[in-house]
Specification:
This protein is α/β, with parallel strands linked by helices and about 300 residues long. About 45% of the residues lie in helices and about 20% in strands. The chain contains twelve helices and twelve strands. The strands form two sheets. Strands 3, 4, 5, 6, 7, 8, 9, 10, 11 and 12 form a ten-stranded mixed beta sheet that branches. A two-stranded antiparallel sheet has the order 1-2. Helix 5 links the parallel strand 3 and strand 4. Helix 1 packs across helix 3, helix 1 crosses helix 4 and helix 5 packs across helix 12. It is globular.
Length: about 300
């Protein structure tokens, strides 16, 4: 029994697929299958039922908690070794907060500490949750509240709250008119866009999607381009379009009968002792300060 076998076993359970687990671990499916066969020989029987759906056997279910306990101990030891080297930090942020929040804080931090090795990544909530679960991050900005049962022990360093603005181009906003109702907005707007910012799409946005003549779910860059050209409307996070609103490139339609919509996220530590490291604490402080400057700091829990 070795660590690669245990990691492969845990990955298959989490993904429900040998193929997906192989892709996640960047190995071939044959390698995954060989690891599991070797592990099954060690534990004395099959861990999975093979078929159209991969499921744990009774032996596999019993073994799972022990395997995860071993992996957790290994990851804790890796955390401890990383904390010995004070010159390395791993940080990840939600893509939507890279430009307005994370990048300015990281740039200032690296200017102050040019010899520090920083790994700075972006992703959707589910990507960052995976990295946190694998204990590969010191700091992260994730969606909040946290609904991942594997990360239930996470406590926020700070909670961020961004207003979602129903944005349109100036030309489309002029056609719709000032202080519109939602009926008026959807009477004129050709297309309603929503984005992948939410762990769970808010009910208010789901309702608007049903009211629109046509609706699509798109990436931020594509959606912003469509909105800027007057081909669509959609909720953009205010912090990411502050300059566009101030300079008149985009308009907040602010329908009089639309409830306020917010997106919460949180700055969290990847492990209980990560924030005790001076460099990690300093980067967290810079991120919180930047959030306060942007007006998106909802609660400072430090």
């Amino acid at each position: 029994m070795d660590i690669d076998q245990l990691r492969s076993f845990d990955r298959i359970v989490r993904d429900g697929s040998f193929t997906k687990a192989a892709a996640r671990l960047n190995v071939t499916q044959a390698t995954i299958s060989m690891r599991i066969r070797t592990l099954e020989a060690h534990v004395g029987g099959a861990l999975f039922t093979r078929g159209r759906k991969v499921e744990l056997t009774e032996r596999g279910t019993t073994f799972l908690s022990y395997a995860r306990r071993i992996l957790a101990t290994l990851l804790e030891s890796e955390d401890a070794m990383r904390s010995v080297d004070r010159g390395r930090i791993a940080f990840a942020s939600l893509r939507s907060l890279i430009e307005p929040l994370a990048t300015p804080a990281v740039v200032d931090f690296m200017r102050a500490h040019p010899r520090v090795e920083l790994r700075f990544e972006e992703g959707r909530h589910r990507d960052i949750a995976e990295w946190l679960h694998d204990r590969s991050l010191d700091l992260a900005i994730i969606g909040w509240p946290n609904f991942d049962p594997l990360l239930e022990a996470l406590e926020p360093i700070a909670i961020l709250r961004e207003k979602a603005v129903l944005a349109a181009s100036p030309s489309l906003a002029e056609k719709i008119g000032p202080q519109p109702t939602l009926d008026r907005v959807f009477e004129v707007a050709p297309h309603f866009l929503s984005f992948f910012w939410w762990q769970v799409t808010p009910d208010a946005i789901q309702t608007l999607r049903h009211r629109a003549r046509t609706s699509s779910q798109v990436l931020f860059s594509s959606g912003r381009a469509l909105i800027s050209r007057g081909d669509a409307i959609g909720h953009l996070l205010q912090a990411s379009i502050t300059e566009d609103l101030a300079e008149g490139r985009l308009v907040d339609l602010a329908p009089i009968d639309m409830p306020a919509i917010w997106r919460d996220s949180a700055l969290v530590a990847g492990s209980a002792d990560a924030i005790s490291r001076p460099l990690v604490a300093e980067l967290a402080e810079r991120i919180v300060a930047r959030a306060a400057t942007l007006g998106v700091l909802h609660a400072d829990r430090r």
